[in-house]
């Protein structure tokens, strides 16, 4: 079913400018293998097993790259802030806004004077527009985490990928009054068709430096904090979740147990909080 776009308030740009898509060297090599295999089969049918094996091996590598969230084999991927950012850190929160957790996260961030980046889900933002606006009003940035957060997003074809991105981009721009510049795939999983779609919509893929796996149930907060803070350094991008939060053994949302420790550690390290948009030149 085709969704009718909602009108934007006047003066808002629906998407940032597009940028040219340049296939990564790995994608170029994969295309060469496919073409070479086809040519070999045409030249000599006896080479068919070799050709099929080469193509299969290449496709396994590409699929593996898509299942590795921090991979750069399929295209650019922001895993760490650029050197120009300085002595800063970027906290990122995924899957919200969530009325049960996000307000407490905002209070914790306020207590430490911290600005953060929230990768929000379009349909969730539609359900909680006031909360999304509150995130912005309190100094944080909103970025694109798809319209529905399908966990099989990496199996989608080009049209459905584009629609998932565009629908979220439209509503997040409308509600936040600012256009997202970054995109994060659900669970970080993607396929080679994502980067061209992001280029057409003027977005950049962003993953993270470290994540705490804070969406697990009955998890150990010490382990989550340790994973997030191991080797804490300037220009890190840390991933946590205010939506779909895991819980500690007392049933408390994991992020509310762990975030104070993270904020204390960042303060002790003398790092300044920034959003991705502040740290990465347009
Ligand atoms: Zn997510």
Describe this structure in words.
The chain has 282 residues and is of the alpha/beta class. The protein has two domains: 25-67; 83-279, Alpha-Beta Barrel (TIM Barrel). 42% of the residues lie in helices and 10% in strands. The protein has ten helices and eight strands. The chain starts with 24 loop residues before the first helix and ends with a helix. Bound molecules: zinc ion (ZN).
Q: Which small-molecule species are bound to the chains here?
A: zinc ion
Order of helical and strand elements? HHEHEHHEHEHEEHEHEH
Are there runs of 5+ residues with pLDDT below 50, and where?
A: 1-14
Rounded to the nearest angstrom, the distance between the terminal CA atoms is: 34 Å
By secondary-structure content and strand pairing, the structural class works out as: alpha/beta
Report the principal-axis shape: elongated
Chain-averaged pLDDT: 90
Q: Work out the number of β strands.
A: 8
Number of helices: 10
What is the number of independent domains?
2
User: How does CATH name the architecture of the largest domain?
Assistant: Alpha-Beta Barrel
Rg result: 20 Å
- CATH homologous superfamily of the largest domain, by name? Glycoside hydrolase/deacetylase
- CATH fold label of the largest domain: TIM Barrel
Give the helix level as a range of percent. Answer: 40-55%
């Amino acid at each position: 079913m085709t969704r009718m776009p909602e009108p934007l308030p006047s003066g808002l740009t629906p998407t940032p400018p597009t940028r040219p898509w340049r296939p990564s060297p790995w994608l170029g090599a994969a295309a060469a293998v496919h073409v070479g295999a086809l040519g070999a089969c045409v030249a000599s049918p006896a080479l068919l097993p070799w050709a099929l094996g080469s193509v299969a091996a290449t496709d396994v590598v590409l699929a593996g790259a898509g299942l590795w969230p921090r991979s750069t084999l399929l295209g650019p991927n922001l895993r760490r802030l650029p050197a120009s950012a300085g002595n800063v850190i970027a906290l990122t929160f995924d899957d919200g806004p969530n009325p049960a957790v996000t307000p407490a996260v905002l209070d914790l961030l306020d207590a430490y004077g911290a600005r953060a980046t929230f990768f929000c889900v379009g349909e969730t933002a539609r359900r909680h527009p006031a909360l999304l606006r509150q995130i912005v009003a309190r100094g944080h940035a909103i970025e694109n985490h798809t319209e529905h957060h399908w966990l099989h997003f990496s199996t989608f074809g080009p049209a459905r990928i584009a629609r998932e991105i565009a629908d979220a981009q439209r509503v997040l721009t409308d509600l936040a009054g600012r256009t997202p510049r970054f995109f994060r795939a659900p669970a970080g999983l993607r396929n080679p068709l994502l980067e061209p779609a992001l280029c057409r919509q003027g977005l950049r893929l962003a993953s993270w430096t470290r994540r705490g796996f804070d969406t697990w149930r009955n998890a150990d907060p010490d382990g989550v904090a340790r994973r997030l803070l191991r080797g804490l350094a300037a220009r890190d991008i840390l991933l946590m979740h205010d939506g779909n939060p895991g819980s500690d053994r007392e049933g408390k949302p994991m992020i509310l147990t762990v975030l104070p420790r993270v904020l204390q550690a960042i303060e002790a390290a003398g790092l300044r909080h920034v959003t991705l948009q502040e740290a990465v030149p347009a």
